[in-house]
């Protein structure tokens, strides 16, 4: 039996996040479902969120529309490709997303505060790319601190679906801290290629597609035909 597959973003855990000096920025998470059906391009959801080192951000309390990344059929093998950036300025991310999805598909990427998460766009990219964040111009280059992929199909069981993310290539982050004198200072944190840095948990649910008999679509019994029905 075919099923409608619902995929929700459940939680995100990061180990090393990095932090800009003024703190005015957000992490960006992209989740792409790779060609779920032959007729469906890879839908991608980009979410702005606040992540903290060695903490899990639970997303069950945000609006449902911000959690669901896909609801539809999966035919054959597919997979979820996930990326997380370090804290980046909203305008920098907005420029990248408009380049990939088009200005009409992208909402304003404002600063997210209070530990919330907001989906900025859910759409198919205008071109197939390995990483939407790597399309940034040199001056708007972003740091990718985690990338992972897991296969998914119609037969994937319901429940938690875990994607482990590692650093795709060496990256240097700036991180603020309080020194021994009680003053805020900045240190560099180097994440080597392959460093296991994040875990993203999705929630998978399946809904059966019921095959109805033709008579089930009738709202009332069929009218028996007789001469009286035709005014004879």
Q: What is the radius of gyration computed over CA atoms, rounded to a whole number of angstroms?
A: 23 Å
* Total domain units: 1
Helix content: under 10%
Number of helical segments with 4 or more residues: 2
Structural class assignment: mainly beta
User: What is the CA-CA span between the terminal residues?
Assistant: 50 Å
Shape: globular
Low-confidence parts? 215-232
Along the chain, the helix and strand elements come as EEEEHEEHEEEEEE
β-strand percent reads: 35-45%
The largest sheet is:
5 strands, antiparallel
Count the strands? 12
Average pLDDT works out at 81
What multimeric state do the chains show? single chain
Feature tags:
232 residues, mainly beta, globular
């Amino acid at each position: 039996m075919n099923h409608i597959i619902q995929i929700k973003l459940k939680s995100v855990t990061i180990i090393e996040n990095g932090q800009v000096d003024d703190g005015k920025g957000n992490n960006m998470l992209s989740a792409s479902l790779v060609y779920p059906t032959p007729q469906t391009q890879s839908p991608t959801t980009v979410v702005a969120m606040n992540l903290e080192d060695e903490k899990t951000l639970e997303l069950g309390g945000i609006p449902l529309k911000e959690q669901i990344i896909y609801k539809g059929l999966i035919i054959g093998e597919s997979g979820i490709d996930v990326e997380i950036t370090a804290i980046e300025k909203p305008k920098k991310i907005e420029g990248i997303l408009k380049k990939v999805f088009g200005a009409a598909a992208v909402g304003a990427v404002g600063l997210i505060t209070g530990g919330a998460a907001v989906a900025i766009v859910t759409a198919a990219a205008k071109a197939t790319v390995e990483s939407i964040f790597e399309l940034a111009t040199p001056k708007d280059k972003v740091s990718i601190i985690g990338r992972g992929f897991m296969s998914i199909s119609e037969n994937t069981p319901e429940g938690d679906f875990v994607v482990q993310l590692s650093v795709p290539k060496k990256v240097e982050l700036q991180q603020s801290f309080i020194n021994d004198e009680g003053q805020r200072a900045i240190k560099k944190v180097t994440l080597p290629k392959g460093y296991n840095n994040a875990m993203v948990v999705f929630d998978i649910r399946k809904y059966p597609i019921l095959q109805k008999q033709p008579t089930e679509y009738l709202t009332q019994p069929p009218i028996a035909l007789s001469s009286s029905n035709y005014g004879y």
